[in-house]
């Protein structure tokens, strides 16, 4: 019930009606539309890690994970244009694109064990595939109880909204949902399981973003494996929501779950999958998927279409060709080290956490408590210096630094220089 | 519980494992994936109303409404490529694209009356916006009861699956859903309202595809207005699902609901909106949207992004520039007249129904009953003659003819010639 993650702490509604574009926007878009920053950014073009406004000022993008292989990457543009000029239909006709891409994607996955091989279903958004994964898990387990972390965000359909405590507002969690801390303490998991059983829901799934981003970015310690064992013993499955950590962001392989030594029954992915084209997928162990997929004639009109597959394949090409996972590890490590060094003696900065190119920086008040207002101030001060970041976490006080994977060492230098200036202003 | 619409009657699972592409596809995609036609079509390129296989054979597309302005339309390709090469972010930054497009789109809508002006929210699929519309309606009305037609299909999220009786299988309708015939008889509507009230759900919305396509295509008589009046008197709203009839398909203006003389509180749209790019939208009367949009921080990552808006704007350009609504009226009228003439004396063909470029043709057995097997046979025989259609309706016996809006008079001639040959074979 916190409005704490991307949903609110760095977004602003209405206001600035003297800007004719904002005034026009407020007339035609519903009031759910918010803008980032007290002084919104009006961008007109982008390239790599840079975004540009109409005056030609460049902004360093330290926030956007969708343009994962860099804004306007020519290889992705070429692939989309070529396929769009050739054929774009749907999966009820045969096409090599979906088969070739699926084979490549599945080759990045571990052996799922005796439950048979992984299979894929495509959709357009992370919300859609999380919604689907809940249905698949329910059909397989015969149970509906879901365990999520206390600030989880898994999407915006009715079903996934009901398992997303970070949304808050009048939209409450479903009665079949129990929350646990991102530390996944064994006692919490046991209590959630017991309570779901007592209330007749049973245990369908534990669903986690394996870098716990909306909870505030908790990459370590690696506490997932024992929780998964307990959930499985209770009849449930693991849904790894890789929308945030997937496709190499953590610098430790393609998938966040691998860092935790677990092999999920269901894996969902989206945002960075096609560098901004609306592409998402659910990977499922064959035996877990069978019950749903043989019974329900699910069809997604745009999911897995030839253009989506061409875009997604181009993203894989770039991740491999430009060695972006190694870059996430190296540059992300450098970023974390530099920020840690810069803030080591600063009482307003707490933990600096992260994995690869996903960094969380705690902002505290003079008494060492979470300081949402100061975090917001830093985000806006960084925006004034043309460096784009945001916030996350239960208290809205964790700076979220999550740049495109092509972030360079010189981008780190620029980020750290500006961050140093902003922190100096905060201390004054 | 019929599996009757696009979901099943013209789709085939597995099979043909001697085709290496099908075998590979069956390994990597889940078993929910089906293929059209007994002998699936393997397409490699497309243009206008023609699809081509690897041997260069051309297929006449009389089925695909997504590529509404024609396959691979150069204006849409140019718009997407240009924007993809410039900037593709999200709606938390200011951008002219979403404001300009929204103004153009809303200009095609009627005055919504005293409830204030219409506003828009964007997503990626029709399923997402129908899911959203249900939430908006529930928040506004304080009720959850939904009235749908008996073979309705509104999408594939958990919430819209629960209001889609055509899905059938183990996925049942929700307890808050009542079905009525596509004739929307006043007594049926009254009974549904009474039953929803008695069971404590109240009346949230009547949701209809205004051409009743999965019900079997019932464009006339125009029975919607009295049903809407009854639903409104019971506190509910009208959700017009324009995924099928919208964007000029009926030949009578942009929106299917206009033909019925009603002005909906909520309108959803998708498939043809961006000619194959995953773009969808919900248009809502401001007073109906306010409760939800002020409370729930809904955000859709890809929804309304600059590339989606560029694609959608290009589609509007083409609809206007090539006068495709007038084309749908003229060519659709010709198609219907020709098919009516061709089949007038044929006892195996019942009603020929439609509006604009959406035609339904009933297939009957010798006793005048719906004949699903014969309809399936016709669809496959047409495919052998390289004309692509499908089936719909409660009995799976209504041929569904729904070509791109650029269908020409010579396309009609080709369609009618092949259809005549197929009907002659059926009669033998």
From TrEMBL, chains A, B:
Keywords: Aminotransferase, Pyridoxal phosphate, Transferase. GO terms for molecular function: pyridoxal phosphate binding; transaminase activity. SUPFAM superfamilies: PLP-dependent transferases (SSF53383). Belongs to the class-III pyridoxal-phosphate-dependent aminotransferase family. This is 4-aminobutyrate aminotransferase. It comes from Mycobacterium adipatum.
